Amino acid sequence: MTSPVAGAPAPLEVLPPGLDHDQEFTSLGIAVRASTSGLYSAFAFTEHDVTGLVALLAPNETQTGLEGWNPLLREWTDALTAAGPVPSSEGILHEFRIFEALYRGRGASGRRTHPDHIRRDAPSGGNGTWWQGFDETDEGFRIWNADGYDSPDPLSALYVLAPVRHEDTLDAWAWALPGQQGLRPLTRYLMHAAKVRYEERLYASSELVHTRVDRSDAETEALLRVLAPTSTGRPVSLDRIRTAAALLDRGQFGPQGLLWTITQQRQLVRTVSIAVDNLRIHTPGVRRHGPGSTWPKAELAVAQRVIRQVEGDQVQLEACRERADAARTVASGITERALNEHRVWLTLVQTSVLGAILTALTVVQAFQYKPPLSRNLQSPVILLLASLALALPLLVLRSARAAVSTPYRWLDASAVVLLGVAAGWTAVVAWGVHYGHAPVPFVVTVPCSGAGGLLAYGAYHCWDRRRSRPD
């Protein structure tokens, strides 16, 4: 079907990019195919977040009987095969095949014989008992629903028999009205039903809830095992607590974590609830003949089943997340107490180190002690002691595995480089004094001091990388 229709949008080869999901019904193209054997027409449309195709294949007026359904179905499936690979089912909401036929008679005419005709001629075959019961509208449309709602394929079939006198009414209900664009009541109803089917299929293919719960509980139990010694007053490694807590956090807040899943489930319930409201608005009034529930009631049952399942799973996930949050809170409290003790200890160590240096300098000054140093060595030794006073507290802090952020790494690096420069300067001057080459020339002390700074920075860089590497 490629021939355009006068006054209608031209047929499209591909869908245009960037469709607006907020717009109402928009026709994307209408096409027909000239044929003496039947009627062929189709149109593509977009409405909000759905893009759809509605196609009509009908025999000419001289052909009668339900046996014409199978040739039309073969023609349709052959056309789909010739069009190329079918898109992934993950992107298809649902495909509904509506098989229509007209019958002569009024009232109860054919109610007993039509089910046998449907069983014999329906392309879906007579498996099961779905053909024994049908729904009937006020206009006399008799509808058989061959969907068992258990198939993983996004495909359903409806069979509709209508009185000949209501042919135009059937077209207006299921296909189109002359001179009007838009979805007809049946098509609109099926579009909302397709959304429910799609969400059900997508949710059924997702990871099982008990698997998520078991994994999260295992991570929670691992953290609790690490924390267990604290209940008896025994010390526990902060690194082990942080590792277990980080693993638990990834399970809670990662892209496939509990928090992400719970919020997605809320969105899913909201989406299906909106679809249910729209289904109720467009549900046709029908009466049931034979066993089973009405077709609209079965569609609503699918939606309500999805909502109940998702809400039940959500309760389990929220309870699981509460357990994880409780364990994480305990871990945070223990970690915070340990870090406070750690900070106090580090402060004490730093104070002790600086106090020892200051005490030594004070005693030296009070006793007027003059170290037996050559005048040439005094300047490099003073720089060496000053750099040690700067680097020693930082070394104690980092040796205790205290975290350091990038903006403060320059202080560590500067202290290490200064210590290396001072050590290089002191070493070369001491060599010169010892071997009688003092004062050492400037062209010798500068390269040696620079080499000492580079060696110190290289050693610091290797130590910092090894220390920062995850366990």
From TrEMBL:
Sequence ranges assigned to domain CASPASE and TPR Repeat-Associated N-terminal in this UniProt record: 1-176
Signal peptide: none
Keyword vocabulary terms for this entry: Membrane, Transmembrane, Transmembrane helix
Residues annotated as domain CASPASE and TPR Repeat-Associated C-terminal: 185-324
Membrane-spanning intervals of the chain: 344-367, 379-398, 410-433, 439-460
Domain of life of the organism encoding this protein: Bacteria
InterPro entries to which the protein is assigned, alphabetical: CATRA-C (IPR046923), CATRA-N (IPR046922)
Protein's UniProt name: Uncharacterized protein
Organism: Streptomyces triticiradicis
